[in-house]
Inverse folding.
């Protein structure tokens, strides 16, 4: 198994200079390594289905491979702490989440 993930951080720059992305966890690194291959094997499949396939693959993955990705995630977390010393995760507030929801999702949430 070749590990493509590295602890250098996300490939795409953040959309705004103010927002610092969270460090990626082990599964996100794994998913990044397997996404292109899974898409190639399943052309035309939607991204949510691709994620399910990779999620099942991760669930049954060998412990040594999972451990390697956990180590990569820890290294990325350490580097993130060095690059952004005052960083603290701040989840979106409920009103910010509602702003991003589509009208259809808002209607479904109101019915519950």
């Amino acid at each position: 198994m070749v590990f493509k993930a590295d602890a250098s951080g996300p490939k795409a720059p953040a959309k705004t200079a103010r927002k610092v992305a969270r460090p990626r966890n082990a599964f996100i690194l794994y998913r990044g390594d397997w996404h292109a291959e899974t898409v190639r094997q399943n052309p035309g499949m939607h991204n949510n289905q691709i994620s399910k396939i990779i999620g099942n693959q991760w669930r049954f993955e060998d412990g040594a491979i999972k451990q390697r990705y956990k180590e990569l995630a820890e290294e990325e977390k350490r580097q993130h702490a060095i690059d952004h010393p005052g960083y603290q995760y701040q989840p979106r507030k409920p009103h910010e989440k509602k702003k991003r929801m589509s009208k259809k999702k808002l209607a479904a949430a109101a019915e519950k």
Summary: Residues 4 and 18 are 28 Å apart (CA to CA).
